[in-house]
Amino acid sequence: MKKFLDMKYFKISLYIIFVIACSILIYRVSSSTDNFMPDIWNSVDEFKSIFSAVVVGFIIAYLMNPSMNFFERHLCKMLKATTPKKSKRIRRISIGVVYLTFFGAIYLFIIVLGPQLVENIRVVILNIQANIYRITQFLNNAEAYISQNITIIPQDVVNEAFNFININTIFDWLIAWIDAISSTLISSAVNITTLFLDAIISFMVAMYVLSQKETFVNGGKRFVYALFNKDQAQKFIDLMKEAHFMMIRFFVGKSLDSCIIGVICFVGLWLMKNPYALLLSLIVGIFNMIPYFGPFIGGIPAVIITMFVGWIPALMVALFILALQQFDGLYLGPKILGDSLGITPFWIISSVTIGGEIAGAVGMFIACPIVALIILICNRWIEKRLANHDVDLPKLDASEIIIKPTPPYKTLEIKS
Questions:
Q1: Cα separation of 101 and 113, whole Å?
Q2: How do the domains of the chain map onto residue ranges?
């Protein structure tokens, strides 16, 4: 009995139970007949639906906080807030200005730009069939001309190339995309009351969170200090401050950058007398929020839609968007964002790809800041471990690399 109660054997028993439990869990997750994961995901979806409005409210408050801080900072200088009562009044005024600016921008967009945008979409949908026939005729004529007059290109290469750019396949994809958007809008219209109420609740939650943000921050700090020891809690809070600064700088900078790109795109397409200037600039501006892949994703539908007008305008739009994205990538983006994330293009491309596979467009948008935070945590841990092992191996910056010629390999001579 004494042997049985030995802590050594007790720990071994716990490890065995843990291994058996993990094995059963893995079997039930991977089994096709005894899989309980769908039930768990249904429960998670129900839980999300209950708290979604509150969570969205916190997200809205987080994104509106920089704008509120801007107005609050300037109002404090003007009104000289020296008492808690004046500070509360300035806080209410700042929140009111932010909400008024946000909803005023939406109202102006609906009143001024909404009808033209709806007209652009209506014309595109009405002219799809006629333009499919016209573009198909153009591609057939081009294929026949190349086959007859440019004989240096093999016939099978020409056939493969024109099969690859089959216009029917492209427009089938475009029509499927439009149908998906339409079905989403219809399903949203059916649940318009629920969405409207959720939106009201979310903005009300955001208002109260903004008005009492110091209380929430203080409560979070108290929880962290209660959960960890003092040094660990301070390190965690410092890390969260860095993550907050990184996220806000990325989101605010990327939003400003995309707005400027959208306006420049609209002006350029308007000067080119493109009939879909507003629709195309809106598409380009929205997709520009996605790092690296966004400009190309936004440029493809813009070029396809402009092909309704003609292949020369479509080529001009493609060249203009390419030049615009080069200007954004080489000059405007670095000026606004700087090195806000501090990660290399490899990590940006990888994170956007993985984020898109996991959560679609939203995943592509938020993947870069999350990966940047993970890399920051990993670098801190690696530096700490290297210091403990007394290893002086600093992180290599790509801008400091000096290329040295590699000496030629010597061939081995085998003596017979």
A1: 17
A2: 54-126+166-211, 135-164
